[in-house]
Structure formats: C-alpha cells, structure tokens
Amino acid sequence: MNFDQPFLDLLGGALGLLLTLLVFSYLLGDHFLVRLIFYGYIGLMAGYSVVIAFNSVIYPLLVQPLIDNPVTGWIQTAVPLLLCGLLLLKLSTRLSKLGNLSLAFLVGVGLAALIGGAIQGTLVPQLSAVISPFDLERSAMAAEERFSAVVQGFLMLFGTVTTLTYFHFGARPRASGLARRLEWIETFSWIGQIFIAIALGLIFAGLLKAGFVALVERIQTMVNFVITLQGGF
Amino acid sequence: METQRCPMCGRPNPPELEVCQYCQARLKPLWAEPSTGSSEAREAGISKSKPGLEPEEPLLPDWLIASRGQMSDEEPPQSEERGEDAFLLPPEEVEIDNFLGDLFSDEPAEEKEDVPEWLQALRGEKISEPQSSPLSESGEQGEPLPFWLGLGTGETEQAHAESASAEEKVPPFTESPFEGIDFDSDLLSLEEEKPAEIGAQPDIQPSLSPFEGIEPFLLEEEKLLSESPSPVEEKTALRAEETAPLPAEGDWTSETPPWLEALPGLEWEQGEPRGEEMPPEFLQGVVPPFVEADEELSEIEFPEWLNQVERSIEPELEAVMDTLTPPAIEMLADQEEGEIVPKEVEESHPQEDIPIEVVGPLHGLRGVLPAEPLVAEQKKPSKALSELLVTDKQRAQAELFLRLIEEEGKPKPIPAAKRAKPHTLWRALIFLALVVAATIGYLLAPFSTPPQELSVGVFDAMQAVNQLPAQAPVLLIVDLEGSDFAEMQATTGAMLDQMMIKGAFFVLVSANQNGALQADRLLREVSRLNGHHYQPSVGWVNLGYLPGGAAGMQAFVQSLTEVMPTTIDGDAAWQSDRLKNIRTLSDFNLVVVITEDSTRARQWLEQMKGHVPVSRLIFAVSAQVEPILRPYYEANPRQVQSVLAGIRDGAIYETQAARRGWAMQLWDAYTFVVMMGIALIFLGSLVYALFALLARRKGRAEREGR
Amino acid sequence: MRSFLRSPFSTLITLLTGLVVLLGYFLDIEPLRELRFRFLQWAVLLAAVSLMLGVFNLLRVHWSRLRESTSKALYSLTFLGGFVLAVLMAGLLGIQHFLTHAVVDYVIVPIEASLFVVILVTLIYALTRSLQNRFSVFSLVFLLTVLFSLLASVPLLGVEIPFLHGGESIFAIGQRVLGAAGVRGLLIGVALGSVITGIRVLFGLDRPYGE
Predict the structure, then answer these.
(1) Sorting pLDDT into bands at 50, 70 and 90, what band is B270?
(2) In this predicted structure, which of A123-132, B249-258, B673-682 has the lowest mean pLDDT?
(3) Centroid of chain to Cα B479
(4) Contact A213 B514 (CB under 8 A)
(5) Residue B541 phi, psi (nearest 5)
(6) CA B571, B577, B581, B582: dihedral to nearest 10 degrees?
(7) Does any CB of chain C come closer than 8 Å to the CB of residue B546?
(8) Cα C69 → chain centroid
(9) Inter-axis angle of helices C30-68 and A32-53, to 10 degrees?
(10) What are the distances in angstroms from CA A147 to CA A130, A133, A142, B705?
C-alpha cells in the first residue's frame, strides 16, 4: 500500500476497487451511480484546479506584491489588476462587454505565441528536415548509406507533398457544372490519403497501447487488493 | 379548365381573377355587374379568337360593341323598362347609338319631352320650362351632363329630320347625360342673349371657326385643326354652322367639336327608340348610363345650315366613322394641318373588305394594323423551354428533401428494446476477453520475454542521464492525466530512478491542473518502488500549475523565476541552495518533458527552441505521441535529444539499467493483453468484413434479380 | 464610452499586443523583450483568472439547480460536495498532505484510468467494425497499420520476429519513412493553419472574443 496508515490504505483500496468496478459497469449502460461518480470527480477536480491556480499564479503575482510592499506593489500590479477586474466583469450581463478588452489582450498574446512557435519551432525545422537528406555534403554519412538516405529522402518528400496536397481544396467549376480539382491534384491527394492513413494508424495503435497499460494497471491493482485482503484474513 | 386571356400580355388566367396575375392588367372591365349571357352585340364585337376568352368579359366598351352589332343589322334590345339602376345593366343590353343622331332627328321637338334647356338652346328652341331629359321617364336623375356634350348641337329637329338614314341613331349619351344637368345659367343666358346669332349663315364659311367664343380648354383639338380642315371637318363645321348660330363668346355649347364628331365606331341612327346604354369606358363613373327614351332628343330646332350640312356630309361621315380607329384619332390630334382623317382613310375600302381585328386590345376594330401573324404572334412557349433542366443528382436531392419534409410531421415509432443491443454484447465480450488476458498474464506470466534490442531513443536518453552530474537540478515538466499515469510511470520509472540514484534535484511544473497533482505522485511512486527516500521540498519542489498554454510556456521559458516565484504550497521556490543559481532553462542540467498529450508536447518543443540546448532535452511520452514527435527527433539537425515512448522503451531502459521497475511488472500482462487485442481486432474485422461482403452480394443479387 | 470599447478598439489591442509578442520571436531588442515579458506574464495571470471564472460559473449553475430542486439536484449536490472537499483539503491541508494524496490515489486516478479502459474497449469495437462501415483502401491501410504496429510492439508468444521486431525491421523502416512522412505533412499543415488563423485574428478578420 501507499501509505503508512494501513487502515487508510485498506479503505482507499476498497474505495478504488469499488469506483473501478462501477466505472467498468458503464460498458453495459449508463446508470445513476456512474453519473454520481462522474459528478463527484468533476467537483474534486474543479476544487483542486481553483486551489492550485490560486496558489501557483494568482497569489504570488497579484496578492503577494501588494502584501510585501503596498506602494510598489500597486504600481507593479496596476495593469494586471485592471485587466483581471475587467475580466471579472464578464460575470455581469450588463457590463460583460467591458471584459472584451481583457479577452482581446489574452487572445492577442496567445495567438502571437502560437504563431511564433509554429514558425520557428515547426515550419522552419520541418521544411529543413524535408530537404536535408538531399544535402549530401552536410550529412555525415558513409557513401553506401547516402543512397538509402536519398531514397528515403525522396519517399519522405513525396509523402509530405502528397499529404499536403490532400488538404488543397481549391477547385474550379467544370463545364458539367461540378467543381473538381485538377487531375494531378486528385491523384496526389489520393496518394496522400494513404500516408495519412498510415500516420493515423500509428497514432491509433499508440492509443491502444496506452489503454492496454491502463487496463493492466487496474487489473493488477484490483488483484493485489484482493490478494492483500485474502492475506489479511 | 376555362381561362381568360389577358388582353395585354395574352397569358391565360383563372376565370375568377379580375387582374392579370402576370402583368397586372385588368381582365374585367369596371362594369357594374358582370354579364351573364351573351348578346348579339357581344358576338358581333368579340369573337373567341384565342382559347379561354370569356364571352362574359368584353374587352371593348359596349357602345362600341353595340355599334358593331348594329352594323350587322341587329337591333339592340329595347330598354323601355329600365329602372333607376338601368346604368347597372350589362353592356350588351344597352344599345349604343349615334350620339349625335338625335341632334339631327326628324322628329319634332315637341315629341321630346325631356330635352334639357341647353340642348334646346343649342337647337334654337324656346326654353319655356326646364326640360326633363328622357332619362326622367326612366327615373334616372341628377347627373349633370358634361359640358362638351352641348357643343355644336345647333338647330333642333330640322337637322335631325335631315339626317341620313334610318340606321343612324342618336347616341345615347346625348339624351341621358343631358338629363338633370344643371347648366350654368350663364350658358343659357348667353344662348338667349344672342338669339340673333341663331339662324345660321347659309353660306359655307370654312374660315369661320365654329368654336369661336368657346372656352380655350375646349379648343385644344380645334387649334390643331385650324389651318386646313379636312373635308369632313369642313362638312362638320358647315353642319355646325348651319345648324347653330354663330357662337357668341363664351357660348361653348353651340358647336360640336370635331373630336366629338370624329369618335369612331358610332353609328348614327335616327328616330328609333334607344335603350339604356353604357357610356364609353373613359366616361364611366362620370357619366351615368344612357337611357333610351322614346322622345326625340332635341326639341331645339336645329339651324337649316346644319341640316343641309348633315345631308351633304352624311355618307362621307358615315364612311369616316367606320374607318376611324384610336390610332387614327391620335393622329388627328397630332396633325397640325388640320386634316382630321388621313387621305388613305378617304380611300377606305368598303366595309366588307376591311378586316376586323380579332386579337389583342384592338379586338373588334376595323382597319387596324395587323398584329398577328406578322408582328406579335402569340403562341405557347415550347415545351422544351417550359421544362426545367434537372440533373439526376438534383432530382435525387429534391426527392430527398421532399421525403424529409413529409417525414417531419410523422412520429417515428420508438422500438422497444427487448434485449441487449449487439454492440453492448460485443463490447462486454471484448472487455471480458481483455480482463481475462490481463489477469492470466499478471498471475501466470506465460510469455515473459522482455524486449531485447536497445532502441535509439533509449540509448540517447541513457546517455543524457549518465552525463548528469551529482545532485544536478533537473526540470520535470509533467503534463499528465490520471488515465495515463500508469503508462508514464512505466516509461519514465527507470530514467527517474537513475536520476534519483545520482541525487538529482527535481523542479516540477505542469501546464495542466491535474499534472501538478500527478507530478508529485510520480516522484512518490518512483521513490517508493525503487527504495529512494525522496521527499517534497527535499528531493523536489513543485511549482504547480502554469496557465496560459503557449503564452504561459513562453513566459516560463523567458523568465521562469518571475513567472512562478513560489511553490504550490506558497513557499519561495528559488531561494533554496539547490536553486539559487537557476535563472533560465539553460541553467538546468536536464529538461524532461513527460506528457501524453501530443499538442502540449509539440507546444513545449516549439517554445523551448533556442532556450534549452538540444542535448539536454528529453521527451518521455505516451505511445500515442511518439509518431508526432518522431519527425522532430529524426530531423537534421535534431530538435530533441531523445524520445522515450511507451512501456516498451521503459522496459528496455529497465532491462539495460538492470533495474526491475514498474514497466517490467506490467510487461508480461501487457504482452498478453496486446496479443489478445490483436486477435480480437483481427477476428472481429474479419467477421464484420465478411458480413459486409455478404450484404453487398445479397444486395447485388437482389438488384440483378429485379 | 460604448463606442470606444467596441470591436475596433478590441481589434487594436489584439493587434498591438500580438505584434509585440510576435516580434520578440525574431528580434532581440531589450525594451521589446521587457515589454514582451510583461505582456506574457499578464496573459498568464488572465488565464488563471479565466479558469477561476469558469469554475465559478459552474458553481453558479449547480447551485441554482440545487435550489430549484430539479431531478438533477442530487448530482449537483455531489458536485458541490466534491468541490468543497477538494478546496478544504488542498486549501487548508495543502497539496502535499497525505489526505490530498489519498484522494488522488484512490479516487481520481482509479476513475480516470477506468474510464480510459472503457474508451479502449469502445475503440477496439469501433476498429473491428470499420471495414463493415466503410470498406475502402484507406480503411484497409489504417487497419493493417494498427495491426502491424501492435504486432511490432511485443514479442509474439514470447518470440521476436526479425522482419517485424527490431530497429531495422521492415516495419520499423516503414514506420520511420512512411509514417514520418505523413506525420510531417500533417505537422506542416497544422503549423500553416495555425499561422494563417492567428494572423487573421490578429488583424481583426476574425473576432472570437465577441463584439
């Protein structure tokens, strides 16, 4: 058991077993007890979230400076206090529009971080990675490895281009009235779907693997509990 | 179904409509009562040249229709028995007479009882008492006659007596409109004041304007005709001069305006009793219907010159009246030369040779420029044009839409669930199979074969951990949910164990609320399982939750001590000896990101670029995130030092480190469960694929069998 | 005042703050760096406050349900009870307290892990029916990829098959090349979409924060 208090461990174990079995019963259909468990779980997480957010961010960044030094603290926290105050006005029906200023600020900063990270963290490095197999001078590989590296590079490039082609939705209306993409785009798109299917299959398989581990862990915990109970009795 | 055709656009309309539904033209004239039967006059005036034309809906005024009927030697019905509402009678029952015929009637004036004073004055009769119009017999009273009706009446019975033929009739509205007219006494006085002017000049004086002295607004037509009057006009003027005295100034009732005389379609008939007739369309509502009266219109003696003129111009006038059409009238109005009728009208053909128009608004008139078939041949649009061009797809969509609308109001029966549904059973079976496999695998461990080959990711991670100095500060970014805790513990257990052996000091931070709780639990479990005595604040500090997503990550990366100055318990985080030298991320000896969320993993990697040396960055992720991070790991240059993915890499790490941990505890059962899962997926897909193929074959056979 | 606070002003705020933060990724100028950090720090604060607002709203909804004594009042009572318990334990006792740990160990983790198992079973069931619902090349490729990935993750009946297991196996190479190619295309596409969407919102073409 996890704790030094055997009784607590026993009680906790029993509770965990009960909760596990009740949630497993959800496979047979929704019922009152399962819903009760879910509501209780959400309440717990909401409470933890509030305490953690307050302890981690709000208190040290907003409250603590005011307590430490009221004068400099007010100067330091004036703008964030104002922004937070405007955001709190979102609770009011009449004044909720004032909260849009804070939301606009939050959206602007968040989007800029996303854009900057996407450009410098993904776009540039990944595009560079697509063409780097063809840079035979830079890549420190033996000659026999270069050919396979180039072949793999071509496959990688082809797969990347066809995958991106699948998301090209520009189409022109034809004489028949139907809007269809160009023939070569349709062909590339079809091939790109193959690569996408492979990629998604790998991700799905990883999800199944994680689930298998969770199942094994649950079964193991329950079995251990039962064994402990048997051993205790 | 019978329809009525619009006179303007020619399209068929339902019979009950009064206004065309296409062009908004009136279908039914503004009659008082719709006609119920057909009359000879209607038949003469209107013929069903187009299908759907209602005989009850005449397009022409009935005075015109009646005149045509009279042209075909039909006698209008008698109208002596009309009551006060005689004007409401349908037009076919009203005879259209020559509106000036009474003026030239041969009947003595004494026989006419109800001739108004002004007409008498025009005719030169003595005005002894207020005359009652013929309408008074029928009881209709009270509507003043329009002023222009009194123009040019001239002498009385003499002019009438000399009128041409028995076929001519006095127009009805010369009688009935005069009934009850309350003329200005001045007009009568004018008539009285200048009796000397009565007695027309026998000589024809075409230069003398018959409308001298008449109000200017009455002389609009006359202005256009002043210069060179046509022979008809001359004759008309002569007639006016003969039958009426020289009009004094202001005596506008003395002359008949040419435009009045030139009205088409009227037949001058004389002496025959007239029934009640409807006034022309343009007078309806203004002028009451004309009631035929037995008495002669005029008790006024027409001047001799008028009678003479009438006699002389009667044939020509008749010919002119036959040929005049509305366009010709308009042309007359526009002509400055004064010719009333174009010369070609003089050369008009005999009546029988002139075709009658049978379509359109000019239906019934003679001498009209033919509209069909040369100009506007109305025909039904081709069937091809009237059919919509609908593709099969559109038809199918339209049918689907109709079906949806039809089914909208229909309640769908709720099938009673009598037994468990197939998918519930299948899911329960799958679950049982997996549970049984996990239990057997855990208890029996039949196939205990740990993975042998060292993967590249594990090797790189081991290298990075081995290079850690003792008691090095290590940043653990733990973005975990409780559902994946077991797998992440299995993945990172061996690595964390190795770090704990080296006495590393952990700094925990999480970008989700649950991660802050799970981070603590992870280190507790690893410490407990591997016999370390790591305690909070001694072995690690938990900075807590970092909100804001990518923005929060960027803020943390830029200045972590300012963004998260305290621990989750409120203690100062960076004051301890272990962390006092930490200012940026690069000050940590190792940064390990532990997450099962691919989005967060990608965001951390993007935001930390350039702030953490790649050699110190390790990602320990769930098996589902590994494909997402592989392109970053295999990029050239690499963006991350190592990627540990799933329980397999954890088991390999434990095997290489020779430390049996959580991964190996789960490995046997995991192996068995995976094999069971493979079998379930393979068999289940095979079964359902066979079902699908059989269903397809069955469907194809049914379609071919039809 | 109202017109002053309408969408053009909000758009201006979004644009200015976004530009300051975005430029900091490419330009390293001291004043810009300081201002950028302040903006990011305030964004962290605002995100925490918005989390509190969300929880408060949730509380308000459940409280009103409890007062109205609807059929779902018991669920709302359970939610409120869990919330109060968590706040009391974590707020008064602390996150590091063993009771808090006990709640995490015996309540939160079992519920989450069990729910994940339910999802796993549903996913397996859906995968087995995928060919029946849609029999196409892509469904077949997807299914075969899942099967081979699972096969390559564990020894089959205790035996590791050469062409299937190992770093240089056919499956590993196929996963490394074909799988990575597809994922790389997806990553580039996602990054491009994020950039375009972000620029649209920054310049006011889209306004997700309302008027």
Answers:
(1) very low
(2) B249-258
(3) 57
(4) no
(5) -125, 140
(6) -40
(7) yes
(8) 34
(9) 140
(10) 16, 10, 9, 58
| Ramachandran region, residue B46 (left: φ > 0; alpha: ψ -120 to 50; beta: rest) | beta
**What pLDDT sits at residue B375?**
61
Spans of all domains in chain B: 31-49+59-166+184-201+209-248, 300-359+372-384, 437-678
Q: How far apart are CA B681 and CA C127, in angstroms?
A: 7
Nearest chain B CA: its distance from A23 CA (Å):
13
B250 part of contact set with chain C, CB < 8 Å: no
Q: Please give the single-letter amino acid code of residue B31.
A: W
Extract the runs of DSSP E, i.e. beta strands, from chain A: 172-173, 179-180
Four-residue CA torsion sign, A219, B683, C167, B477 = negative
Pick from A210, A54, A27, A55: nearest CA to B567: A55
Radius of gyration for the alpha carbons in chain B, expressed in angstroms and rounded? 56
Question: In this complex, which of A47, A192, A208 lies closest to C90 when CB atoms are compared?
Answer: A47
Q: Does A38 touch chain B (CB under 8 A)?
A: no
**Domain boundaries of chain C, sorted by first residue:** 1-92
**Per-residue pLDDT reduced to its tens digit, B23-70:** 888 888 776 555 444 444 444 444 444 444 444 445 667 777 777 666
C-contacting residues in B 299-318 (Cβ below 8 Å): none
Tens-digit pLDDT profile for residues A169-218: 777 777 776 777 888 888 999 999 999 999 999 999 999 999 999 999 99
**Exposure string over A105-117, b if 16+ CB within 10 A, otherwise e:** bbbbbbbbbbbbb
Geometric angle at alpha carbon C115, from C109 and C116, rounded to 5°? 90
- Let me know if C97 is exposed, middle or buried by CB neighbors in 10 A (0-12, 13-18, 19+): middle
Its ipTM equals 0.92
Q: Residue A145's pLDDT is what?
A: 74
Whether A159 sits inside 8 A of C184 (CB atoms) is yes
What is the distance in angstroms between the Cα of B378 and the nearest Cα belonging to chain C? 55
- Rounded CA-CA distance C167/C171 in Å is 9
What mean pLDDT comes out for the span B543-553?
A: 94
What residues in B contact C156, CB-CB < 8 Å? 675
Helical residues (DSSP H) of B484-636, grouped into ranges: 485-501, 513-529, 550-558, 560-563, 598-608, 626-633
Q: Which residue of A has its CA nearest to B675?
A: A212
**What is chain A's Cα-based Rg?**
29
**Lowest pLDDT segment from A214-223, B386-395, B409-418, B631-640:** B409-418
- Contact yes or no for C188/A118 (Cβ under 8 A): no
Which one of A56, A59, A203 has the shortest CB-CB distance to B624?
Answer: A203
Contacts of A117 in chain B (CB under 8 A): 550, 554, 603, 606-607, 609
Q: Would you list the DSSP string of A35-103?
A: HHHHHHHHHHHHHHHHHHHIIIIIIIIIIHHHHH-HHHHHHHHHHHHHHHHHHHGGGSTTTGGGHHHHH
Query: Distance between CA atoms of B417 and C36, rounded to whole angstroms?
Result: 61
- pLDDT at residue B311, as a whole number: 74
> CA-nearest residue of chain A to B673?
A212
Across the interface, do A206 and B645 touch by the CB < 8 Å criterion? yes
Which amino acid type is present at position A60? P
The confidence score (pLDDT) of residue B420 equals: 55
Question: Is C6 part of the contact surface with chain B (CB cutoff 8 Å)?
Answer: no
The answer to whether C76 and A35 have CB atoms below 8 angstroms apart is: no
Residues of chain A contacting C71 with CB distance shorter than 8 Å: none
CA distance B518 to B672: 28
pLDDT of residue B71: 61
Residue found by looking up tokens 């000049």 in the block: B201
B568 in reach of chain C (CB within 8 A): yes
Which of B475, B539, B487, B549 has the alpha carbon at shortest distance from B512? B549
